[in-house]
Model the fold of this input.
Amino acid sequence: MKLIVMAGGSGTRLWPLSRTNYPKQFIKLSGMKKSVFQETISRCLLIGEQNDIYLVTSENYSELVNEQLKEMNVSIPYEQILLEPEAKNTLPAIMYAVQTIREKTDDICAVFSSDHIVDNPQALADTVKTAETLASSGFVTFGIKPDRPETGYGYIKPGNPLQGGFEVLEFKEKPDYDTAIRYVEQGYLWNSGIFVFQSEQFEDAVMNYNPEVYEAFRTSDIEESFDKTPSISVDYGLIEKMDNVYCVPLDAGWSDFGTFGTFCEKQHAKRDEADNVQFGDEIMLNSAKNIVYSEKNKAIALIGVSDLVVVDMDDALLICHKDQTQKVKDAVEILKKRGDSRVDDYIGKQ
Amino acid sequence: MKLIVMAGGSGTRLWPLSRTNYPKQFIKLSGMKKSVFQETISRCLLIGEQNDIYLVTSENYSELVNEQLKEMNVSIPYEQILLEPEAKNTLPAIMYAVQTIREKTDDICAVFSSDHIVDNPQALADTVKTAETLASSGFVTFGIKPDRPETGYGYIKPGNPLQGGFEVLEFKEKPDYDTAIRYVEQGYLWNSGIFVFQSEQFEDAVMNYNPEVYEAFRTSDIEESFDKTPSISVDYGLIEKMDNVYCVPLDAGWSDFGTFGTFCEKQHAKRDEADNVQFGDEIMLNSAKNIVYSEKNKAIALIGVSDLVVVDMDDALLICHKDQTQKVKDAVEILKKRGDSRVDDYIGKQ
Done:
């Protein structure tokens, strides 16, 4: 099985933790030994060898990727570190990897995003390996049994059981809260964004369901391909359109890394009686349900405040109500317009 | 007229702006040219000469005081910089100064606190000078016409008019909000904490109304005096007990510097349409009525929050609801118990 790792995301949703030139998948919060990118690579090595890994990332991150791989003592063949000339979302990224893989083999491929957190990597590895057989009949996705009506994830509507999984009846976009409650009651699963397929079938599917992308990749000039291809996600542009998509239940403590909540809670943070998530010894008086991260070991006091996300970096400070984290990108836009380089880089970090 | 400046306050109510070893009166916020202590000295020099000034401060601040005087090119006679061996509130501090003054003269004295802000120093100087005559008949306080029902100040209940002022019927402690509204309606004035008196009368009054303090100061050993004297304010321990206290209206844009609100609003802060007070170009999205001060020129975004005081120092961060700033001292107590030196000093300031 070939292992495709996508590490091109530039998410500024987690600004100021995440910067354009130093996005979330490469960050090590205080107390973290590995970035989530490095964790993803470690998980892949439970499934296959270094030589089985194909990495798709942005040209901008090639140095970061090489640094972090070296730190782990992992060596991925140079020609398998695929640099996207521009960001065109996940379908072109995977197409690039599959095309590269097919120059050598028609193997089964598994695709992993490098901004997931998995508490039990061995369980993930085992589940993905057992899906290999099923993948010869069609695309295999992995579904997580919800423990709450999460509105931040997509959902999968299950159909008939089949070889340790089931057919997918429908993919559902991120729901509102009431819809999420109904989904959970009706046995829908979270869409983990991990999937397994046979590489030739992937190319055929792109040809059938997204000929524009397919056409763009008929040249061997990758600059040209990325220039021509539309920007589209693999979910929207391919999987949701396909028949013969299967889902295998995954029970490995999976979560997406996309919000301050999951980012912080899964790291070395503590949770106090008032549901404050904190990394240090911040003083919390009359304060509940806050998430506080500080890069430096500062003396920090929160008094009479609730439901805040506080991210204190050496060069930037975010104080955001938990319900309004979707507006962080608006703040980033304003900074960009001002030409503020702290959107892209850490300035003056010590 | 001799001018007594009290600069011994160690207020940690404004932590982390203010530290035990660097209290609020000596702070220069970004954009400030002078500390409020320096502003107070400047105002005194509109009333008298350098040689007329008597400074009472803590031993701990003698270096700070000398530095800041030097910066202003002001030279106060060495023996007129009076260092309190320990903090015993304002009555002993003034007693110390008056005793020192009386070794030379029985002049009229004016007492100024170094944590006031005065928009129109010349008006203050003129008003204080005109009170000199009245001071030969009794203590003169200065009353500010309220423009709002402020609960953070004491109030003066006015009586019969008299020589450009009036008799004081009663002093009122900081009221609750409803009481403050009534006071304002009934023509009460804010007690500015500035007063003028004849120095011999002051000593007599202390002898009559607070013999314990008087006794403590009968030795020439100032260590012993401060060791023996009770800790008591000049208001509570003296003026509120006296007859023959007068009040002169003062219209000079006076305010006390005791809260983050007055501290910040009177400095070089801007106020936006949503009533946010800010020093820099902080981004405010869906946020109103916040006060934000950052020591560094950081990229700061507030999203979906209201009524917060945010003080971001290099070594400390406070996020406090405006209604709960009285709890800042509790946070400081916790830090003290932890042995955290950031209560006393700036650590790592650049």
